[in-house]
Structures are given as structure tokens and as C-alpha cells.
Write a structure and sequence with these properties.
The protein has 195 residues and is an alpha+beta fold. The protein has one domain: Ribosomal Protein S5, domain 2 (2-Layer Sandwich). It contains 4 helices and 10 strands; from the N terminus they run E-E-E-H-E-H-E-E-E-E-E-H-E-H. A hairpin with a 3-residue loop joins strand 1 and strand 2. Helix 1 packs parallel to helix 4 and helix 2 packs parallel to helix 3.
């Protein structure tokens, strides 16, 4: 098996980020974003996707959480794009739903090379800890943009913590499925021959 991993750095006036990702990992995570709830979500993402993930971010949290959450999504998406390489032999499509007590989250993904994001639902509270709930949605959009994903997500519930955690777990399981190698496939899964 080829090494499906990547290390990506992003440095701007707003954030300084390092992401290391291994698609075929054990779910090990080392995360320090400066936002406790986001750390928890990324650790959960790694655990449930069986990705080895390191994320370090120094962001302008004195302003708000926007730049940090958005830029981590963009950087993680770049890491997925790089780790997938030519996408030869991957499953490509996946659909996962995850319940989190009263909340139900769903993610449908196509590693298409065509970034598209759709979201259905609302978050029940404005924030969880230091993270604005809406930024979970923005994180997914940012990830889809740089990873080249068609990503449809939905959520319903009564508790924003559960709603967001369900989304991150559903995303993890869907990306684990979609990035998994299919031993029956030797080529890129597209009639065009590339993604």
C-alpha cells in the first residue's frame, strides 16, 4: 500500500497552522487549536475515522473563532487532497448517519474533485464552549472546498453539542468509507479516468 499521508502548513496574518494526516491510521490524535470544543471534535473525528491526525493552530482568538475554525477546515481539506493523491482505487462515495442522543446528523460525500456543499438544519444553541455553532457548518464547507468534495450534511436535535458532535462523527465515518481502498479497483473510480 502506498503511503497515504500528508503534512500541510498554512501561515497568514490570522492563523499559523500545521496539520499532519494519515488516512490509514489507528485514530490517534494530537490537537491544539486554542478552542477546547474544536479540539474535542477533531479528536472525535480522528477516532471515528481511524485517521491519525495532528493539528496545531495559533489563531487570532482575541477577535473571535472564525479565522481559526475556517482555516483549520481549509488546511485539513488540503491534507486530504494531498494524501489521496490520484484517488486510484478508492470507494469514492459514502453515506453515514450518526445519532447522538436526541440529535441525528447525516453526511453524504463524493470525493469528486468538484467542491460543493449543502447543509440542512439549524443548531439549537448559538455556541458550545468557545466555538460558535454556525462555525461547524463553515468548517464543513471549508473542508469540502479544498479537499474537492461534494458534501451534503444535515442535522436535527435539541442540543448543539450533540448536533455538532454527530456531524463530526458522521463526517469521519463517511470519509473513512469513501477514502477506503477497494481491492477490486485498480483505476480511478470515474468514467473520465480522473477525479
Amino acid at each position: 500500500m502506498t503511503d497515504r499521508s500528508a503534512a500541510v502548513t498554512r501561515e497568514t496574518k490570522e492563523t499559523d497552522i500545521d496539520v499532519v494526516l494519515a488516512l490509514d491510521g489507528d485514530g490517534d490524535a494530537t490537537v491544539d487549536t486554542g478552542i477546547g470544543f474544536l479540539d474535542h471534535m477533531l479528536e472525535s473525528f480522528a477516532t471515528h475515522g481511524l485517521f491519525d491526525l495532528t493539528v496545531r493552530c495559533a489563531g487570532d482568538l482575541e477577535i473571535d473563532d472564525h479565522h481559526t475554525v475556517e482555516d483549520i477546515g481549509l488546511t485539513l481539506g488540503e491534507a486530504f487532497d494531498e494524501a489521496l493523491g490520484d484517488r486510484r482505487g478508492i470507494q469514492r462515495f459514502a453515506d453515514r448517519q450518526v445519532p447522538m442522543d436526541e440529535a441525528l446528523a447525516g453526511v453524504v460525500v463524493d470525493i469528486s474533485g468538484r467542491p460543493y456543499f449543502a447543509f440542512e438544519g439549524e443548531f439549537s444553541q448559538e455556541s458550545v464552549g468557545e466555538m460558535t455553532s454556525y462555525m461547524a457548518r463553515h468548517f464543513l464547507r471549508s473542508l469540502a472546498t479544498t479537499a474537492g468534495l461534494t458534501l451534503h450534511a444535515s442535522v436535527d436535535g435539541e442540543n448543539a453539542h450533540h448536533e455538532i458532535e454527530g456531524l463530526f462523527k458522521a463526517l469521519a465515518r463517511a470519509l473513512d468509507d469513501a477514502t477506503r481502498l477497494d481491492e477490486r479497483r485498480s483505476e480511478t473510480p470515474s468514467t473520465k479516468g480522473e477525479l
